[in-house]
Amino acid sequence: MARAGEVLIVTGRGRGSPGGVGVVREAIHKVLLRLKRMGVVARINEQNPGAFVVELASIRALFEPPLRSRGPVIRTEPDAAELLALDPQTRAELRQLAEYSLRHLGAPVDPPFVTDEMRRQFAVLARGIAPEETDREARLRFLIAASRAAFEDD
Questions:
Q1: Cα–Cα distance between 39 and 127 in angstroms, integer?
Q2: What pLDDT digit, counting tens, does each position of 10-27 carry?
Q3: What is the number of alpha carbons within 13 Å of residue 43 lying toward its C-beta?
Q4: How far is CA 141 from CA 18, 125, 131, 149, in A?
């Protein structure tokens, strides 16, 4: 029996599938494993050969880095000055990414949310820029475009 925060996903056993192997079941299992790696799903349990019980992760878990076994997690949040220092075009692209992300999550696209999401996206993307990068802004724009494409692939 599923509890609060859990979802029962019935795939069927696959008896009607070729060879009696559940094609839908295997596809759903792969999707659930991907969602678990992404932090959307906290736990997957096979209730029976035709159903899974899935515990959904909290919204907060989606935005926190995964726990690591070694060393402290150091977070550096960009301040407003760092965002203002960006080229206007880069800032506009970052705003578009933030708005797209909020819509994708079903969150309000209000100015305070957009600003917070811009800061969060910037902090995440800035980690992908090497200190020795000669054109850091071009690299940031590339990462923004890649992030937006990843949303569109889902």
A1: 19
A2: 988 877 777 766 788 888
A3: 9
A4: 47, 10, 16, 12
